Amino acid sequence: MAERIKLNRITLREQKQKLFLYERFLPALEARKQQFLMQLAIVRKEIGEQQAVMERQLEEITRWSSLYWNMTTILPFFISLREIRRHVKNVAGLKVPVLEEVVFDDPPYSLFATPYSFDEVLSKTREVISLREHIKILKEQEEILMAGFRKTSQRINLYEQRLIPGCREVIRKVTVYLQDQQAAAVGVAKVAKRLSEEASY
Questions:
Q1: 3-state secondary structure 50-86
Q2: Does 114 fall in a domain?
Q3: Distance CA 133, CA 125 (A)
Q4: Torsional sign, CA 132, 134, 137, 142
Q5: Which spans in the chain are helix H?
Q6: Domain-embedded: residue 52
Q7: CA dihedral angle for residue 83, residue 84, residue 88, residue 91, rounded to 10 degrees
Q8: What is the CATH number of the domain that holds 34?
Q9: How many domains does the chain have?
């Protein structure tokens, strides 16, 4: 059930104040929405670039598949993730994760006890794992930014389609009512004056 509006000066003042605030916040929301769009474009471009790099690295690793077979017993100890270091940056009021570093377990090993290509295979494998983690965090960024964009768009729509037109309509109704009341009061005053003048003759 819609709230009944009181047609008086207090309502008029309140609605004018609300309209002023809505119209003041709307440009800030529009700017925030644009910021999300720009950041989303940057993140999506970076996801594409990182995925292309990872695909190239995987192709290169595929060519070394025979080398991997010689290292299946020792390699897992050196590609185990110890920590994924990340920090948070602020994008238009949203906390967005940023990858700092991927840290691997690094047990000591003998150069003589490992195959000659172990260092290179290890390095390439770690690069691919680091890229994978980087892409994961970029996709997290994309999700957070998209949620912020959607929420801001909904708020803009609420302001533009309901709150601002609603305030304007109430202001119009109250203004018309008060003008009618004023006109009626003037009319009553004129009639009263005329009647009092007629009564004095």
A1: HHHHHHHHHHHHHHCHHHHHCCCCCHHHHCCEEEEEE
A2: yes
A3: 13
A4: negative
A5: 9-63, 65-69, 75-78, 118-158, 164-199
A6: yes
A7: -170
A8: 1.10.287.3240
A9: 1
Which has the closest alpha carbon to 58: 106, 136, 125, 9?
125
Determine the Cα–Cα distance for residues 181 and 144; give it in Å rounded to an integer.
53
Single-letter amino acid code for the residue at 178:
L
Instruction: Note the pLDDT of residue 5.
Output: 82
Two structure tokens written together for 122: 């290890």
d(C-alpha 104, C-alpha 113), whole Å: 21
Give a yes or no: residue 42 inside a domain.
Answer: yes
Give domain status of residue 187, yes or no: no
d(CA 18, CA 163): 9
* C-alpha–C-alpha distance, residues 144 and 154, integer Å: 15
Binned average pLDDT, 10 residues per bin, the chain of 201 residues: 75 94 95 96 98 93 78 84 95 95 88 78 91 97 97 96 95 89 70 61 57
Domain that holds residue 145: 20-167
Asked whether 81 and 103 are in contact (CB, 8 A), the reply is yes
